[in-house]
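Input structure tokens:
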């Protein structure tokens, strides 16, 4: 048996209860988050996944300019807001307020989004030839 399959089969007991893996809690409605950083990590990585997906769509579509960036910002912030306020129903004040959760990992996801657009944009060969 490999170590990864052993890890999946292990049951971690903390204070008499069974601890769920982080990603199973992330997709479970109203999960209990023992550690503040664990939930913030989930928010951060969900934001990165959303950035890659939207970057691919925007690069292929191609949505450009201020409108494309504005739509990305609204979708990115909106999806995460719905996730933590409606799906997980966490107490935002425990994590520093709604604004702190909404901006968690935003700049990194924005950079990832822009890189995706650049590499998937049909205009890329023209840009590279100009250099």
């Amino acid at each position: 048996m490999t170590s990864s399959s052993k890890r999946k089969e292990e049951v971690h007991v903390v204070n008499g209860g069974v601890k769920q893996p982080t990603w199973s809690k992330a997709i479970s409605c109203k999960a209990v988050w023992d550690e503040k950083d664990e939930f913030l990590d989930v928010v951060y990585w969900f934001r990165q996944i959303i950035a890659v997906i939207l970057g691919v769509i925007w690069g292929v579509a191609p949505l450009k300019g201020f409108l494309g960036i504005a739509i990305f910002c609204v979708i990115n912030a909106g999806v995460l807001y719905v996730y933590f306020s409606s799906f997980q129903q966490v107490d935002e004040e425990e994590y520093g307020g709604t604004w702190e959760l909404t901006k968690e990992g935003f700049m990194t996801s924005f950079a990832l989004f822009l890189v995706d657009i650049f590499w998937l944009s049909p205009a890329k060969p023209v840009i590279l030839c100009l250099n």
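The CA atoms of residues 16 and 71 lie 46 Å apart. Residues 1-15, 126-131 have pLDDT under 50 and may be disordered.
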